[in-house]
User: Fold this.
Amino acid sequence: MPVTMEKMSRRTHRTNPRPRVSELAGQSVAVVGAGKSGVAAARLLVALGAEVALVDHKPETEWGMGASDIQGVHPFGGERFAQGLEAVGLVVVSPGVPPVLDVFDAVRRQGVPIIAEVELASWFLSIPIIGVTGTNGKSTVVSLIGTLLQECGSTPFVGGNLGTPLTDAALAIRQRASMDPEAPAPFQEIVAELSSFQLETIDRFHPHVAVLLNITPDHLDRHPSFADYAKAKANIFRNQTAEDFAVLNADEAEVLSVRDSLRGQLVEFSVFKEVPRGVWVAGDTIMTRWNGQRDELMPVCEIPLPGTHNVSNVLAAVAVGLVRGCPRESMRRAVRSFQGLPHVCEVVRERRGVTFINDSKGTNVDATLKAIDSLRQPFIIILGGQEKGKSEFGRLKAALEPGAKHCIVLGESTETIVRAIAGVGAISRVSSLAAGVALAADLAGPGDAVLLSPACASFDMFRDYRDRGQQFRDLVNALAD
Assistant:
C-alpha cells in the first residue's frame, strides 16, 4: 500500500507532520536522483527500515562516491531507471529531477505520493524550521542567519539547497536519540535554503519562519512559465498557521503579491521605507520595530559586504533574529563579523592595482545586476555560459553602460548575449575561461575591477558554478605579479 499523506497529517506547533516509523519500515520507496540529496534521503530511509531503490538516468558507473553501494539500497541506473519505480509506495525526488517526467505518470495513476527530499526530512524534524527562498541571496541570508543564531547561543543546522541535505539533519537527530534517548538533539533549529525545485513537490512541509527575498525570472528551462516559478516559491508559506511567521521583502512588488494569502504573522524588511513590523533603513541606520518598540540597531556602514542587495540580505537575517528572540548586541556582532560566501562577489586577488572578483554564483541576470551594483570602480566583466530559458540579457545594458570598459563573453549563450548588449562598448568573444581571464588581465588598469558574473548556468563548460569559480580563482592566482 502507498504511504498516505492522511496518515501523516498530525502536527503540533512548530512541528512538521511525523509519521510513525512503522509506516515506512518494510515499505518500498524509490529515491530518484543519485546525487547528494538522493543519497542522503536513501540513508535516512534505510535507517527507518524502508526497502529503498535508488534510481538515476545515469548508469551506476557514473554515480558519485558511495551512491551505488549504500548498505540496504538497491541501485537502478541507466536503462533500468523505470524498473526502480515499480511496486513502490512512495517516491522521493531530488531537486534536480523534474517531477513532470513521463516516467512518473504510471506512479501517479497508482496514487503513489511523489515528494521532495525536504518534505521527507520534515516528517522527522520536531525542531523549528527557518526556511529561506528567493531567486537571489538565499545562500548569503541562510549563512548569515546561521552565524547570527550561533552568536545568540543556539546550535543551528544550516543546509538544504546550500549544501548539506535536510535528511542528513533528520538522520543525525535520529542517530543521537538512538544512542542516548536522554541526550539533547545535536541541533536546536534548522536553517534551510529552499529552491523552487525543492518547494514544488512539498506536501506538509511547514517552516515556523518562512522568508521570501525576491522573485525574478530564473530556471525557465525547468518551470513552464514565470507564474509557475513564482508559485513554487510561494509554496514556502503553504502550510503555515497563525503561530508562524512570514518574512517578506517590502521592496519587491512580486514578493508583496503573496501578502493577502498569508496565514502566518507578517514581518517585513526594507532598504527604502519604514515597515510596521520588522527591519528597515532610515538614513544611515538600521532600525527595528518589534513588540511595539522602535529601536536603532546599527549603522549601515558597519555591514562588511558591499552593495545595496547585501544591505537587504542583512535586514532579512535580522528580521529572523527578531522572530527568534536574539539579543540585539549578538545580532550586531554577527553582522559585523560576516564575510560572505565563496563565489559570491568574492575578492580573489589584487594584482597591479586591479581587483579580481569571483561571482560565479551569479547564474542569472538579476544576480549579475546586483554584482555590478556593488562595484564603485570601472570594470571588465566576463559573461556567458548556459542560458536558463529566456534570460532577458538585455536588462544588463543599462547597468553596463556607465562603468563597463569591456565585456568578455563565452559559452553556449555567447551570441545571444552579444546581440542583447550590443552598443554598450567593446565586446570580445572568447572560447574559454582561461582566454577570458588572460584578456581581462591585459585590458585592466590600476583602479579597475575584473568581475566574473556570468548571468548563466555553468553546465556547458563546468561541473557546476563552484567548479567555474574555482577555475577562475586558479587562473587569477596563476597570473604573474
Q: What stands out?
A: Residues 6-120 form a domain with the Rossmann fold fold (CATH 3.40.50.720). The first strand starts at residue 28 and ends at 32.
